[in-house]
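User: I'm writing a tutorial on reading structure tokens. Could you give me a worked example: one chain, its sequence, then its tokens, then a sentence or two explaining what the tokens reveal?
Assistant: Sure. Here is the example chain.
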Amino acid sequence: MFHHGYALHYERFLKSYVQNRDQRLVICEVGILNGSGLAIWCDLFPNSRVIGLDIDISIAERNMGNLLKLGAFSDNSPELHKYDQLIDSTELLDEILNGDRIDIFIDDGAHFDDAIMTTMRSVLPHLSDPFVCFVEDNADVHRKLELEYPKFPLFVDGELTVITSPSGTAHRITADQLPGFPNPPEYLAKISPFSQCRIFVSRCGPVLVLSQSPDSPLSPQSASTLSDCLRRRYGRVGRSAEWPYWSHHPPKLIAENHLQDQYSQLVDYKWFCFQGVPGFVMVCKDRFVEHKRCFLDPDWNPPPFSDPRYPTFPAEEISPPKSLGQMRTVAEQLSRDFPFVRVDLYDIDGVCRFGELTPYPEAGTDCRFTPKDWSLRIGSWLKLPQPKINRRLAYSRFVV
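And here are its predicted structure tokens:
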């Protein structure tokens, strides 16, 4: 737990349990080795039932005397049971638990996919509600877990995956969670790291009315879309690697005024800036219907490159926004402290409105330019700072 850097995540997910540490919980760990982890659980939760499972429990049994000499198990003692992670052990767990349900489960055993998945299938029927499960030392199994158990929220950081019960972490959308605007006619609710999840909200007296689009008939409906997105963890795999900083922060619900321009859908003006100098603008139309792109230089002239992966539209279809000059100034000022950043802006009735800053769009795979030499040419605009290297430390790593 500690030498892998997992302790901060254990602290975060177990905070509510530790605050009520005198309650009776059932804590089960598979892969106990010499039993030191069980000593921690027994000390941390003195009134709980602590169960240790392993294919070979003799190592822990032999080490119990040493742990007792060090002061372990003064207020609680664990149970040890032989357990094979590669076979269905649902009935064995029935017998061990004898009607109890597991509140906290730790898989620190064999660490490979088949063992983890077989163990999860055996443990799942015996989990309490709420529960939390920690799966250690496997960087890829979260993909299989997410496919097999899509309703369970997953948190992933490196080789640690944390699984929690839906009822324990589900966000329920109520009026006081969509805060703050004095009698707004309508506004937009979205998830902090994820642009694809957005809900239009209108007020009808004290009642919140949710819809997927401002043009669709407004009718009361569940907030399951928002809740599903709030339970996800972003920033580790696929396109969501665009937001790695969100892997350490749970998604939050943001409510903001609903903006509209003269087009059917809000047009994005994405300024690609290098150390405070705008290189080009990517204009995006109809993002949630039929996403089309157009590239323009900062003076609103078509550049000699395009991105063939997306449908395009001719530059003549989009006139320069009234706030073009203001946009350019804002983009220059916001980007001057970054080697590269994309500054997303909007034009609302001739006024520049800020969207977001994106330091590496779509995990650095956003644009693939044609002709290909433009990828190299644009890449040359990026001037990264030289890393500060402790040369003595770097040298010592290679000297025996």
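What the tokens reveal: The CA atoms of residues 42 and 77 lie 6 Å apart. The chain is about 25% helix and 25% strand.
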